[in-house]
Amino acid sequence: MEKLFIIGFGPGDESWLSDKSKNTLKSTKRILNTRDISLKSLMKELREVTVETAVLVSGDSGFFSVTSTLIKDFSDLYEIEVFPGIGSIPYFSAKIKIPYDDAELISLHGRSENIVSKVVYNKKVFALTGGVNRVSEICRTLCRNELGNVSVQVGERLSYSNEKIVQGRAVDFEYEDFESLSVMYIENQEAVNPHTPLYDSDFIRSSTPMTKEEVRWIAIQKLGICPSDIIFDIGAGTGSVSLEMARKAYNGFVYAIETNEDACALVRENMNKHGTFNIEIVHGKAPGSLEGLPAPDCAFIGGSSGNVGAILVKLLSLNSNVRVTATAITLQALHQITDSFERYGISETEIICVNIAKAKKVRAYDMMMAQNPVYIVSGFGRSDDSLPESKRESGVLT
Questions:
Q1: Which end of the chain is more exposed for a tag (fewer CB within 10 A), N or C?
Q2: Which domains can be identified in the chain, with CATH numbers?
Q3: Residue 288 to residues 130, 291, 310: CA-CA distances in angstroms?
Q4: Is the pTM of this model over 0.90?
């Protein structure tokens, strides 16, 4: 069996190759460089097992590299040995004298990552850019999400004689032209700890209804939110649920859907107050306002204006396995929600009633003051194919 060496080429200049890598390249008969050959051509070449081969991969062989693909696809054809290289992020870190051991490291080169969430919840972010995710586009995204003043350093043509490193704010680089394959360091001094809860007293309030903190925490927990989830908050109100869910989905995104303009403004105020910007406010009435949004992993229905059935049909059309939680105060609303869950494909439905009482000081005594009981209904989507055609399309309760 011939040998295949996968060698981290480093940031670019050959002087950053290790001595072992250089010696191996001198004695290897066939050398394939991923900078000079497409992935498709590389795979074709490697299937022709003729001689000992070395594949040069950019940066470090173990960081967002083609290495894992090569090991998976060619372990049966070659005896594989992997050599590490100096990655662009360690190189850039050394140049700007900022350690990366406590930073979030991501690659946006040919990958989809939520840069807003990364910057909101991490003080330090190092990012590889490339393709459509150029420095200017990343900075425009940050600016659109209230993060234009975060500190940014950009390194391009790293390790070469014409290397360039600049520093500023995201807003300074919205329309600057940088090399596609650059490295960014983004620092957000106001980064939020996503693991701290928000209390009712933390929110800016108005006459807009707000889901109380204990109910909010239970309802959100029922959704089983994962860090990278896409979430809908339908009937966002003050944004209290949106902000709590955005923190749980600290690598994901929340769409706060709200019909009232004043409430939308209140959501924005609370986002600004708490530095939580992985939220997009959608002004409109569901289900119509859900059109064009990405498929949700889960959805919270805090207000439906009587459209629960139609909302569920839309959610299931976007993701047949969507996780849903809805809350109700009145028995009529509870009936509509439970009937809709049954009719429109929500399985493993759970219904709980939450009764909260809080102590209030009355002279020398502590009296427990009851709040309104709240019903929380939760469940999971199932394939639309199991529903009658009429129910899949209309979402109208009869």
A1: C
A2: 3-86 (3.40.1010.10), 89-187 (3.30.950.10), 200-394 (3.40.50.150)
A3: 35, 6, 9
A4: no
